[in-house]
Amino acid sequence: MTRLRLFDLPLDVITLDQTLDRLGEWIYRTPRAPHTVVTLNPEFIVQSRTQPDFVTVINQADLVTADGVGIVYAARQLAGTEVPRAPGMDIVRGLMERHGRDLRVFFLGAKPGVAETAAKNAADQYGIQVAGVHHGYFGPEEDQRVAELIRDSGAHLLLTGMGAGRQEIFNQYWRQVLNTPVMIGCGGVIDVLGGTAQLAPEWTRRMGVEFIWRIASDRRRWNRAPKLLQFVRLVQAQKRKQKA
């Protein structure tokens, strides 16, 4: 597997199927060992410019996949490399489809009640075992309690949906306590599974422009548009710097 560097952050050149193969190996490896997964998107890169802790945990991740088409664009412009996408939603669904009832999943994140609904829907649709659920509305003073709860659940897979930065930092900082084979910062995946957010239409996902659809269809996301513009400017500025 090739690992690129974009804006001082790692990016693994790995397909969705290869990602699912690798995570499947980690899930059932004996003895258990914790692994963190980051699904890199343009907002992460913009946010990391002002959050050194976020940069650190991304660099420490065991696997960093290209979540958004913006990352594919950046890799092409800055590294001259075509990077396949492995979005968080596709990774989560792929693992559940592949492993079904053999997979124990802990759902961490979203508003109170949403994780419970997401867990029930996932169990009904994919047959997975629900290792546990917990909402994402708690402060750092409760991190250890929640980490120990997840550890004691015996989960194979932890879905952490607490917002960019917070979810990755939680997974990495508490990884030894969590001792969960695969931990993914999955953003809005729990909301989608719980029915409180809509999955982008398939045609937008095939074209890699689902983020435009999400922003246009949800006023709560309009404040994210400036970050995408900032990302494009960062890429252009870095490309000019490399040519100089």
UniProtKB/TrEMBL annotation:
Listed Pfam families: Glyco_tran_WecG
GO molecular function: N-acetylglucosaminyldiphosphoundecaprenol N-acetyl-beta-D-mannosaminyltransferase activity
Keywords attached to this entry: Glycosyltransferase, Transferase
EC number(s) on file: 2.4.1.187
Protein name as catalogued: N-acetylglucosaminyldiphosphoundecaprenol N-acetyl-beta-D-mannosaminyltransferase
